[in-house]
């Protein structure tokens, strides 16, 4: 924001006119459209450049000056980037943990989003930087990212199979059923029903056969049928698409271990239409014969009383209180059983 006045706003028509000259100097155009300050105030990108290369001594030196302290949350187009970003977002992207830690201690706003709605935590996760993710989470970053972005840290970690990062996100309270497509921006309005599983972390971990992430999500209380805590509109699902997580697991040719986990965590086996499945190809992937056999056998018999008790206890507690199992006055083997830590 320019000193002494509100930020400069440009209408869509003017932006389109100016975009025509973007080919000549794209960075200048990006600066003009998205930077927080007038162009003349954004020319000095030393703070942002130091964050990019991980130059902690330079960051410390610059932030001793009041002029740079006031720019710690400034979004600017920097030396090797195109999107206007804050120094914290740049350091998190590059994986410079010490710089991330220092910037936070100097007052960097932890959940400030870039022009794409990405937080520093999200870009740290996307780029696989576990240390930066831990630093940000310990400092209070929202583990769910921003609702202004279409993806979440949990979703991305589940997709790429980073169980180590996913475990940290869960430890700091990430919602394993989170789905920003469903969350209304106006609290008084009802939630939009789920009409596809593609947006769900459980689905994506199964689609990429990331068994460890799949297990972690279920252990943390993910809904085993839809991985969604809002309303469901199965009739709205695309024809031929999976109607529940078990259906997706079978259609994607996942091994039997995925099916066993869903059964153990209480998935509704009657949601799957067996007649639509077989060992022949369904799409581009063949159903795993062993997984299909496990599913059919499980659906043909009643769950054990022991299994039903565990499912009931976990559902009554709810995912937000599963961690209380550790302090229950019961033997450790029973705690491990309830937490699915026995296998």
UniProtKB/TrEMBL annotation:
Question: What name is this protein filed under?
Answer: Ankyrin repeat and SOCS box protein 1
Native species: Aquila chrysaetos chrysaetos
Q: Name one GO biological process term.
A: intracellular signal transduction
Q: Name one GO cellular component term.
A: ubiquitin ligase complex
Q: Where are the ANK repeats?
A: 86-115, 116-148, 149-181
* SMART domains found in the cross-reference section: ANK, SOCS, SOCS_box
Pathway(s) served = Protein modification; protein ubiquitination
Please state every residue range assigned to the domain named SOCS box.
Answer: 299-343
PANTHER family assigned: ANKYRIN REPEAT AND SOCS BOX PROTEIN 1 (PTHR24173:SF27), ANKYRIN REPEAT CONTAINING (PTHR24173)
Which taxonomic lineage is given here?
Answer: Eukaryota, Metazoa, Chordata, Craniata, Vertebrata
**Stored InterPro entries:** Ankyrin_rpt, Ankyrin_rpt-contain_sf, SOCS_box, SOCS_box-like_dom_sf
Segments of skewed composition (Basic residues): 7-18
């Amino acid at each position: 924001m320019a000193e002494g006045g509100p930020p400069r706003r440009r209408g869509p028509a003017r932006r389109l006119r100016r975009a025509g000259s973007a080919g000549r100097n794209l960075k200048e155009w990006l600066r003009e459209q998205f930077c927080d300050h007038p162009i003349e105030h954004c020319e000095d990108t030393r703070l942002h450049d130091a964050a990019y290369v991980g130059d902690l001594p330079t960051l410390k030196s610059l932030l001793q000056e009041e002029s740079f302290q006031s720019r710690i949350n400034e979004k600017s187009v920097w030396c090797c980037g195109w999107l206007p970003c804050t120094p914290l977002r740049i350091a998190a992207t590059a994986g410079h943990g010490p710089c991330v830690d220092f910037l936070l201690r100097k007052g960097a706003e932890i959940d400030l989003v870039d022009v794409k709605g990405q937080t520093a935590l999200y870009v740290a996760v996307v780029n696989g930087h576990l240390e930066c993710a831990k630093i940000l989470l310990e400092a209070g970053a929202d583990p769910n990212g921003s609702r202004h972005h279409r993806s979440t840290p949990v979703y991305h970690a589940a997709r790429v199979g980073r169980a180590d990062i996913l475990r940290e996100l869960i430890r700091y309270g990430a919602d394993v059923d989170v789905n920003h497509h469903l969350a209304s921006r106006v609290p008084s309005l009802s939630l939009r029903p789920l009409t596809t599983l593609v947006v769900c972390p459980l689905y994506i971990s199964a689609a990429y056969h990331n068994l460890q992430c799949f297990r972690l999500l279920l252990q943390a209380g993910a809904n085993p049928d839809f991985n969604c805590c809002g309303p469901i509109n199965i009739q709205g699902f695309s024809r031929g698409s999976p109607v529940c997580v078990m259906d997706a697991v079978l259609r994607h040719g996942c091994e039997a271990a995925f099916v066993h986990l869903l059964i153990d965590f209480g998935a509704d086996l009657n949601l799957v239409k067996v007649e639509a499945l077989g060992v022949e190809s369904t799409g581009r992937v063949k159903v795993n014969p062993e997984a299909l056999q496990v599913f059919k056998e499980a659906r043909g018999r009643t769950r054990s009383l022991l299994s039903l008790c565990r499912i009931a206890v976990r559902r009554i507690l709810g995912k937000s209180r599963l961690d209380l199992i550790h302090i229950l006055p019961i033997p450790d083997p029973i705690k491990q059983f309830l937490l699915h830590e026995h296998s």
